[in-house]
Design a protein that fits this description.
CATH superfamily of the largest domain: NAD(P)-binding Rossmann-like Domain
GO biological process, one term: amino acid biosynthetic process
CATH topology of the largest domain: Rossmann fold
Strand order of the largest sheet: 2-1-3-5-6-4
Order of helices and strands: EHEHEHEHEEHEHEHEEEHEHH
Number of strands: 12
Catalytic activity: shikimate + NADP(+) = 3-dehydroshikimate + NADPH + H(+)
EC number: 1.1.1.25
Pathway: Metabolic intermediate biosynthesis; chorismate biosynthesis; chorismate from D-erythrose 4-phosphate and phosphoenolpyruvate: step 4/7
Bound molecules: NADP nicotinamide-adenine-dinucleotide phosphate
Helix content: 25-40%
Strand content: 15-25%
Structural class: alpha/beta
Function: Involved in the biosynthesis of the chorismate, which leads to the biosynthesis of aromatic amino acids. Catalyzes the reversible NADPH linked reduction of 3-dehydroshikimate (DHSA) to yield shikimate (SA).
CATH architecture of the largest domain: 3-Layer(aba) Sandwich
Distance between the termini: 37 Å
Radius of gyration: 18 Å
Number of helices: 10
CATH class of the largest domain: Alpha Beta
C-alpha cells in the first residue's frame, strides 16, 4: 500500500520536502506519496484532519506551524518537548505524536558535512521562532559553551531562554545591543526576515572573530543577505540551510520507516539545482 505523507506550511509551493522524500523512498524501495499542503495557523487543524481522513498518518510541518503542531499533539518526543515545537508528526496509538528533527538535522550537517566541532563554542542565535526553538536544545546537547539568543521581539527570546532552563549558559540579548556581546565562534540566522519585506536590524561586525562560522537556516535567495553580511564581516565559513534541510528530512524518514537514508545524493542534486 502507498503511504500518504505531506508537509504543511504557508507558503509551501517552493518546499523541497516532496522531492527529498520521494528520492529517499525510491532509494530505499518504499512506496509513498508525499505532497505539499498549504495551511496557515487558522486552516491547519482542519487541513490535518482532512489529510488524516485521506489516510495520512505521517507528516512534516514547517513555518509558521511548528508551535501550533506542538499544541495539537497529545505526546511528544524528547527533542520536541524541549523545543516546544514540532516538525514531524506520527499517528500513534490513536493520537498525533510530535517529534522535532530540526536540531539533530542541523548538528549532523554542521559536524558531519562541514566538519565543525561545536564543543566549547560561543553561539549567537538570531531568531526565536519554531526553528530556533528546535535547534537550541540540540546545540546545547552537542556541547556548546554558551548560547546567546537575540530576537526582533525580545520577549520571545526571553521565553526561549526560559524554556531551555539553563540560566547562565543560555541568555538573551537585545538585538540593538549586540555590539556589547563580544564575539562568537558560530552565528546562526534562524529568522525568516529574508522572506519578508522588512529587513532585520543591522548586525555589528564586532560579533565576528578569526574562527567564526556563519550559518543560515535559509537557503537559496533567502540565504543571500545574511551570508553576504557574513562574508563582508570576515566570517571564516558561510553555511546555508540546505544540508540541514536534507538531514532533518532524513531523521524524519528514519522515524517513519526505521531506516536512515543516504543523504549525499539528494544533497548533491539540490545543490546543483540551486547553482
Ligand atoms: P517562525 O516560527 O515564523 O519564526 C520566524 C522568526 O524570524 C522569528 O524569530 C521572527 O521574529 C523572525 N523574523 C521575521 N521577520 C523578521 C525581520 N524582518 N527581522 C528580524 N527578525 C525577523 O519561522 P521558523 O519556523 O522559525 O523558520 C525561520 C527560518 O528558518 C525560515 O526562513 C525557514 O525557512 C528556515 N528554516 C530552515 C530549515 C532547514 O531545514 N534549512 C528548517 C526550519 C526553518 P519575531 O519573533 O520578532 O516575529
Amino acid at each position: 500500500m502507498t503511504a500518504q505523507h505531506a508537509v504543511f506550511g504557508h507558503p509551501i509551493t517552493h518546499s523541497r520536502s516532496p522531492f527529498i522524500h520521494a528520492a529517499f523512498a525510491q532509494a530505499e524501495g518504499i512506496a509513498l506519496q508525499y505532497r505539499a499542503i498549504d495551511a496557515d495557523l487558522e486552516t491547519f487543524p482542519a487541513a490535518l484532519q482532512a489529510f488524516f481522513a485521506d489516510g495520512g498518518r505521517a507528516a512534516n510541518v514547517t513555518l509558521p506551524l511548528k508551535e501550533a503542531a506542538f499544541a495539537l499533539c497529545a505526546s511528544h518526543g524528547h527533542a520536541a518537548q524541549r523545543a516546544g515545537a514540532v516538525n514531524t508528526l506520527i499517528w500513534r496509538e490513536q493520537h498525533w505524536h510530535g517529534e522535532n528533527t530540526d536540531g539533530s538535522g542541523l548538528v549532523r550537517d554542521l559536524t558531519s558535512r562541514h566538519g565543525l566541532d561545536l564543543r566549547g563554542c560561543r553561539v549567537l542565535l538570531l531568531g526565536a521562532g519554531g526553528a530556533a526553538r528546535g535547534v537550541a536544545p540540540a546545540l546545547l546537547d552537542a556541547g556548546i559553551d554558551e548560547l546567546v539568543v537575540a530576537n526582533r521581539t525580545a520577549s520571545r527570546a526571553d521565553a526561549l531562554v526560559d524554556a531551555m532552563g539553563e540560566p547562565g549558559r543560555v541568555i538573551s540579548a537585545y538585538w540593538e545591543a549586540l555590539d556589547e556581546q563580544g564575539d562568537f565562534e558560530i552565528i546562526l540566522n534562524a529568522t525568516s526576515a529574508a522572506h519578508g519585506a522588512t529587513p532585520p536590524p543591522k548586525l555589528p561586525s564586532s560579533l565576528v572573530n578569526s574562527r567564526t562560522s556563519a550559518v543560515d537556516l535559509n537557503y537559496g535567495a533567502a540565504a543571500v543577505p545574511f551570508l553576504a553580511w557574513a562574508n563582508a564581516a570576515g566570517c571564516r565559513k558561510q553555511i546555508d540551510g540546505l544540508g540541514m534541510l536534507v538531514e532533518q528530512a532524513a531523521e524524519a524518514f528514519h522515524l517513519w520507516h526505521g531506516r536512515h537514508p543516504d543523504t549525499e545524493p539528494v544533497y548533491a542534486q539540490l545543490r546543483a539545482q540551486l547553482l
